[in-house]
Structures are given as C-alpha cells and as structure tokens.
Design a protein that fits this description.
This protein has 154 residues and is mainly alpha-helical. The protein contains six helices and three strands; from the N terminus they run ααβααββαα. Helix 3 packs across helix 4. The N and C termini lie far apart (38 Å).
C-alpha cells in the first residue's frame, strides 16, 4: 500500500515538474521531447550517436531520430569522426548552446521552486532518499546514470 502511494506521489511530482518545464520553454517555441539530447550533446561538446544513446538511456533508433530533429532545427551539427570514419560526431551549434543554456537556467529555477520552504538539512535528507530510490530502481536494463546529469548543476 505504501509503495503505491509513493509511486503515485513520485509520478504526480514528475508530471507537475514536466508541466512547469514545458510551460516555461514552450514560450520560446521549443519542443521538450528533445531537451535531454541537446543537453547531453552540449555538455560533451562532441559525442557520437552510440554514446548519446547510452547516456540518455535510449536505443540507437531513438537517438538517431532525436539527432535528425536537432539537426533540422539547427541546434546541432554532425561531422565525421577523425579517428573512426564510421562514426558521426554531433556538436552543438551556437544556437544550440544558447538554447541549452536557457534550458539549464530553467531547470535550476524549477529546482529552486521545488524546494522552496525546505531547510538545508531537509533538502539533504530528501536528496539522500531520492538517490537511494534511484539505486533501488536501477537495473541492467534500466540504468539511468545520475552522474550523466551533473552538467545541469554547473
């Protein structure tokens, strides 16, 4: 019973945060479904599509679709890998870097809103609990790596 309530609570929080984020960035005319890809590409400033798929925890086809979308919106560019010509490396364009920076600012603003009214010790406890839940829910098939998002906090 408790697990169901926790799951629903976490789902509701996720939906609320997603709605807040969508509202803030849709004002700029951007589609939120490709944000994670642009942020990872910007953080690595040169990443191949296989690495992108791994870091975003999606299959190669999904990463390829995202790359096409971002290319079509002039947010990234694709170049041949100098070391392995079979690989294509994607880089953020200047426009992509600016958009990624706006996304990161929005992310930080929403994080501040989420913990409004919490003490530092409450935030530390909450973070610890959430990290433990993430570990408990991670498996070899579902292995979202928290460290891959560290660039959001810089």
């Amino acid at each position: 019973m408790l697990e169901m309530k926790l799951g629903r609570l976490m789902a509701a929080i996720h939906k609320n945060v997603e709605t807040m984020f969508n509202k803030k960035i849709s004002e700029d005319g951007f589609d939120t479904s490709y944000i994670q890809y642009l942020l990872v590409i910007s953080a690595h400033n040169g990443i191949n599509q296989n690495e992108l798929a791994h870091k975003t925890n999606v299959n190669k086809a999904s990463a390829s679709k995202a790359v096409r979308h971002l290319l079509g919106n002039n947010l990234i560019e694709r170049k041949n890998d100098d070391v392995d010509l079979r690989n294509k490396i994607v880089y953020p364009t200047e426009k992509g870097k600016q958009v990624a920076e706006r996304f990161k600012t929005t992310y930080r603003d929403i994080n501040k809103d989420m913990i409004k009214g919490f003490t530092e010790s409450e935030v530390a406890l909450l973070k610890n609990f959430l990290e433990r839940i993430l570990i408990n829910t991670s498996s070899s098939e579902n292995n979202f790596v928290l460290s891959d998002l560290d660039f959001l906090d810089r």
